[in-house]
Amino acid sequence: MEKILVVLPVEDRHKELLEENAPDAEFLYCEKASVTKAQVQEATIIIGNVPPKLLEGTRNLKWIQLNSAGTDGYTVPGVLPEKAVLTNGTGAYGLALSEHMLGMLLSLMKKLYLYAEDQREHIWGDRGPVTSIYGSTTLVVGMGDIGSEFAKRMHALGSRVIGIRRNKTQKPEYLDGLYQMDALDEWLAKADIVAAALPGTKETYHLFHADTFRKMKRGAFFLNIGRGSAVDAAALAEALNTGRLAGAGVDVTEPEPLPEDHPLWDAKNVLITPHISGQYHLPETFERVVRIAAENLAAFRDGRELRNEVDFATGYRKLKD
Question: Can you list the positions of beta strands (E) in the chain?
Fold first, then answer.
């Protein structure tokens, strides 16, 4: 009998959905903050992000379903048993995060954040010219679920959308071009909007740094929604303060929380949110997480391929043939 540890804040209806897809299993529901090493060590299946340190030395674990799209800490050798399967929550977050990105971008382009400041000071003033998504060129770096959903929305609003991803695949209709990382510099110089939706890996660490920002089109807007480690935050602050960039919206930073004395707080034309776009503030995000877990429970029971299986070598989902 499989022993399934669930560390998600599930309601009764979620429990019913999970249990109907693994009717012969034994379920234990526990809050993430109170989960113990003994509970983790006994489980054969875990649904939810338990602290990686609790997984070390696990012998019974066959599969862990993360509620996050990121796999930071779980692909480190020795954390999971050699034959254990790791799946992530890709597909749950694209809706919420892409809308968060779009909201930030529109606030920057239409100067709504400046008018909000004027409102607090009771100032009736004109902040001058604004820019438009229509007719712009958008570069999306990282074409996973989140980047793809943002690209779709930008395409629908009239932007020319270019995607950058690690591997060569067929170009979807909502993109005007799809390239690999060797084309990044070329498109940085052409894009009015650059959006980073990258996982935290060795390859993405500080991909956006001082030289990267200097290569971007003057007056471009920059968004980061994936991992803070992909961006040198001090270099971003400098690019904003020198006027190289027209504005930036970030939901993730390095480090987190952002220290009170970090220059990014006071940089010109920046919007910062505290890594909240991917949480469950949008209820549909959590519903999607549970549905992915339930779908995978049924697949595991039937011996079928699991959705979102992670390649331990890359930290990304395995590519399908």
Answer: 3-6, 26-29, 45-47, 63-65, 85-87, 137-141, 160-164, 177-179, 193-196, 220-224, 245-250, 270-272
